[in-house]
Amino acid sequence: MHKIGDPSTIELYVRKDEYKDKQTIALAKSLGRNVHVHDIGTDAFTKTIWKDILKKLNLTPKELMNKANPYYQKNIRGKDFDSEGWLDVLMHHPFLIKAPIAVWKNKVKLLNSPQDLLKI
Length: 120
Known about the structure:
Blueprint: E1 9-14, H1 19-30, E2 34-39, H2 47-57, H3 70-76, H4 83-92, E3 101-104, E4 107-110
Family: Belongs to the ArsC family.
Protein name: Arsenate reductase
Organism: Sediminitomix flava
């Protein structure tokens, strides 16, 4: 895995089966940079990686979750965890993570649309 912030590579944290994420991957590749794609649904990530991403996004693990997801609504909503607990929820239920997330140079951005990639 590349070091987060590698200036030669755009790191994308995506769900490869999502349409918006596929569009983001295509746009990133069209920019003529190296693109390294991480599938948050299948690839394993350490807490250190997620802590680094969250710190650079200035978000908590809870803020990175899609609270509209039915699983979140049924199983997690209303529960109170400390920061490590929320990080564990994020790591054990990666399908709840808002995506895609782009890392380029020392910038990390949660992408609401593929075009947001052009803003980093």
